[in-house]
Design goal:
Length: 386
């Protein structure tokens, strides 16, 4: 048992840490203020191979795994969560479903450009009438046997990476039939950007993640070839449960990064800022607060790394992924609140990174399964739900 990163991953961590400090930190505040997608930063992330981290080289990837992705996400989110979520959604929700469930042809068609960052992928599951209860999907897809095409109708909301200039596709979940008991058969279908009838609404005005892209999508008799079905017809529900289980590890790594970023900023500020003739860091109340923040970030890191190790080893990881997501998102909000407090009035000013971290932290308790949903999953894994 060795909890230290192996040299290759430590090298990756240092490279992303440097990139986050030298390239992301000086520029991201302006993009955030303007609610603008940071194309130049994302292009650079693509050149570094970050979008291909967990995919094999034969599809244009870097030959790494989910652990490598988590390391990169944590370092990015220490500085900024908008770029981190762009990477997380592009990999875990955009490219991963194609890698896990796609045909060889679909993988060859999409993965090289998704891995290079030339294109971004998105995953459309949530609908205006419900996200947690994804089985209640209302979007439909009917197979037109005359033309051998799926005809899709419905609306998806809050979809990350779905409306940028480089978005190549959205995989949508849709009801494609009913079982004998009348339950919906849900399938996943790839819809390329620009398909007639597929409209992307203007970007939402959000509380946080302001330099990331989130949109509502409408499908009005959208026709795509039957071959755009991802995996088996009627298996979409099982597929997205798997995708979300994995995605939770990535979100947990991102939340850990935000929590650690709050520690970094607080240590720096507490040493610089003077009150009553001495640095505020000289007060034990401040020291203890930051010590607790560090304890939480460290524990969250152990939790996501444990879940990622289980996933990579092919072991069950559902409970550990839910624990890591629940814990890391909870403490990310705690640390963001405490870091803001340590910064006093400056913590309420957008030019300070902690203000951005505060605004970016709340969504971590909501996206890719709310905290309540994580508790439901953990309770089920403990055998408390029949
Ligand atoms: C910025 C952003 C980006 C997003 N990106 C994507 C994306 O790329 N793709 C995508 O598909 N979705 C995306 N989402 C959607 C996100 O995953 C959902 O918002 C989330 O899953 C919650 O769904 P909901 O908003 O419909 O809330 P609801 O499901 O309506 O839940 C409302 C509240 O009720 C609680 N609740 C619901 N059921 C229960 C229960 N049985 N017991 C106890 N409490 C319960 C919930 O925990 C929550 O607190 C994104 C959302 C945001 C805000």
């Amino acid at each position: 048992m060795d909890h230290k990163l192996p040299e290759e991953l430590e090298q990756l961590r240092r490279t992303v840490e440097e990139f986050a400090h030298d390239v992301v930190a000086p520029k991201i505040g302006d993009y955030y203020e303007r609610h603008e997608f940071p194309y130049e930063i994302v292009r650079e992330m693509g050149r570094m191979g970050l979008f291909g981290l967990p995919f094999p080289e034969e599809y244009g990837g870097m030959g790494g795994d989910y652990f490598a992705l988590g390391v990169a996400l944590e370092e990015l989110a220490r500085v900024d969560s908008s770029v981190a979520i762009t990477l997380e959604a592009g990999v875990s929700l955009g490219a991963m479903p194609i890698y896990r469930f796609g045909t060889e042809e679909q993988k060859r068609q999409w993965l090289p450009r998704l891995c290079s960052g030339e294109l971004l992928g998105a995953f459309g599951l949530t609908e205006p009438d419900g996200g947690s209860d994804a089985g209640a999907t209302k979007t439909t897809a009917r197979l037109d046997e005359r033309t051998n095409e799926w005809v899709i109708n419905g609306t998806k909301c809050f979809i990350t990476n779905s409306g940028t200039d480089i978005t190549g596709l959205v995989t949508v979940t849709a009801v494609t039939g009913r079982t004998d008991e009348g339950k919906p058969r849900i399938s996943s279908i790839i819809v390329p950007s620009g398909t007639p009838g597929f409209t992307v609404a203007p970007a939402y005005s959000k509380v946080g993640w302001n330099a990331s892209d989130t949109r509502e999508l409408s499908f009005d008799d959208v026709r795509v070839p039957a071959a755009n079905l991802l995996g088996e017809e009627g298996r979409g529900y099982a597929q997205f449960l798997r995708i979300l289980d994995e995605g939770r590890i990535a979100i947990a790594a991102l939340a850990t990064g935000l929590a650690q970023g709050c520690v970094d900023e607080s240590v720096r500020y507490a040493k610089e800022r003077h009150a009553f003739g001495r640095p505020i860091a000289a007060n034990q109340a401040i020291q203890f607060k930051i010590a607790d923040m560090e304890m939480k970030a460290h524990t969250a890191r152990l939790a996501w790394r444990d879940a990622a190790s289980r996933l990579i080893a092919g072991e069950p990881f559902k409970k550990e992924a839910a624990l890591a997501k629940l814990y890391s998102s909870t403490i990310a909000v705690d640390n963001a609140r405490d870091a803001t407090q340590i910064h006093g009035g400056y913590g309420f000013m957008n030019e300070y990174p902690v203000a951005r971290m505060w605004r970016d932290s709340k969504i971590l308790e909501i996206g890719e399964g709310t905290s309540e949903v994580q508790r439901m999953l953990i309770a089920r894994e403990l055998g408390l739900v029949s």
